[in-house]
From TrEMBL:
Protein name listed in UniProt: Dihydrofolate synthase/folylpolyglutamate synthase
Magnesium among keywords: yes
Domain Mur ligase C-terminal as annotated: residue spans: 297-410
Classification via SUPFAM superfamilies: MurD-like peptide ligases, catalytic domain, MurD-like peptide ligases, peptide-binding domain
GO cellular component, one term: cytoplasm
């Protein structure tokens, strides 16, 4: 199912925590019981990757695991998985009908209290996980944490993966305010694992966590700095735990930052399943994660000229992608396929990406910066670049193929553009540009 049947707005009527709790009650959901077996993943970048790693780890431990992530790439079903399988269309439609009915009843009781799309998706996921008997719930938070519906779960295990300047009109005007908003997804008594990029706000986070009776674990205190050797043939990672020792494994996820994400996932798993973290170190962990993937996050395709694709949409996210791409290219020539959403910090992201690529094809996906405008902005930063324009992702791939198979293609700029390029690429059966 490509889109939700509910057709709800992105933002609801004000803060939605009380509203979501009331609708959950109408649906017969026991949020406390669901929360006790939940893990919530918050942060700026890397949430989806950490969530998928955790789902793989819990599955490897024999737990029937439900995974709720957002947004999706190609089909709405992708947001809901149990044991690695997306929800069936018919089941999704049936559960959304239940949510729609509960929302209608709520609007009768509370006129004007309009729910948001994410709230409905969250409730749909909980309905399915409860109905299907999931042992463990891995839930990716939406925007922030303080007013995010996932806060209602009061999950005992929480991760704050990373920190970046995102959604600042909603979350705060400084990185500290953003960090503390996200921290509020954790209830008193919870254990929160914090990624390396939050270190700059450590004092404030620890002060607030102490006042809230939240236990914090910093990955930098538990692990030595990770080693990462990434290439198109595989991503070799070495992690060293202060107590357990060394873990060497090859990941299917590319990008040095995935080693940082892996530390977060492993620390959350250690808190949720200390028995298996100890008994399964390192063989169970390495085998559970060996095939774990997150589509459109430093995803590599080797057909034809080759394609490296990433959906990073913040300055830090796209900066990490550029760094990782340059490692994977290892000096080989590349053509950048670029599209950016108009509601993102376009100027700051262009400042990062433009110095790295001198051959570029610009285009636009849904809600994207107009092609001519994006091309002009790129040339302002890289006047000597060869910049061409394409009407859409299909046209961009066709134009890139005019250069032959010698230049690897790199698609960057945001989620909608990554989805469009990925869909166009997968729809093409040619094995070389000459076909």
């Amino acid at each position: 199912m490509r889109v939700s049947t509910l057709n709800l707005p992105r933002f609801g009527a004000g803060i939605g925590l009380a509203r979501t709790a009331l609708i959950a009650q109408r649906l017969g959901l026991d949020l406390a019981a669901l929360g006790r077996r939940s893990v919530v993943i918050a942060g700026s970048n890397g949430k989806g990757s950490v969530a998928r790693m955790l789902a793989s780890l819990f599955a490897g431990a024999g737990e029937r695991t439900g995974l709720f992530t957002s947004p999706h790439l190609h089909a709405f079903n992708e947001r809901f998985e149990i044991a690695g399988t997306p929800i069936d269309d018919a089941v999704l439609e049936r559960l959304e009908a239940r949510v729609a009915s509960a929302i209608a009843d709520h609007l009768v009781a509370c006129p004007g209290d309009q729910p948001a799309a994410f709230e409905a998706g969250f409730l749909t996921a909980l309905l399915w996980f409860e109905e299907a008997g999931a042992d463990r719930l891995v839930i990716e938070a939406g925007i922030g944490g303080r007013y995010d519906p996932t806060r209602l779960l009061r999950a005992p295990h929480v991760a704050l993966v990373s920190l970046d300047a995102e959604h600042m009109p909603l979350l705060g005007t400084t990185l500290r305010e953003v960090a503390l908003d996200k921290l509020d997804v954790a209830p008193p008594g919870a254990r929160v694992v914090l990624g390396r990029s939050l270190a700059g706000e450590r004092a404030a986070i620890e002060t607030v966590a102490g006042l809230k009776d939240v236990v914090v674990t910093w990955v930098a205190d538990v692990w030595l700095a990770p080693r990462s050797s990434d290439s198109l043939s595989g991503h070799a990672v070495r992690l060293t735990h202060g107590e357990r020792g060394r873990l060497d494994m090859t990941m299917a996820m590319h990008g040095r930052f995935q080693a940082d994400n892996l530390e977060v996932a492993l620390d959350v798993f250690a808190g949720a399943r200390p028995d298996l973290f100890a008994a399964g170190w390192p063989s169970l962990i390495a085998s559970a994660l060996a095939g774990c993937r997150n589509p459109a996050r430093m995803e590599c395709f080797d057909r034809g000229p080759g394609l490296i694709l990433d959906a990073g949409h913040t300055p830090a996210g796209i900066g990490a992608a550029v760094e990782s791409v340059q490692t994977l290219l290892d000096g080989r020539p590349a053509t950048l396929l670029l599209g950016m959403s108009a509601d993102k910090p376009v100027a700051a992201m262009l400042d990062v990406v433009a110095p790295a690529f001198d051959t570029v094809i610009v285009s636009a996906a849904a809600g994207g910066v107009p092609t001519a405008e994006l091309a002009a902005a790129y040339l302002q930063r890289q006047p000597a670049a060869r910049v061409r324009q394409a009407a859409d992702a299909d046209a961009a791939l066709a134009l890139a193929c005019e250069d032959g198979d010698d230049r690897i293609l790199v698609a960057l700029g945001g989620l909608f553009w990554a989805a469009a390029v990925r869909e166009a690429w997968l729809a093409t059966t040619a094995t070389t540009c000459a076909e």
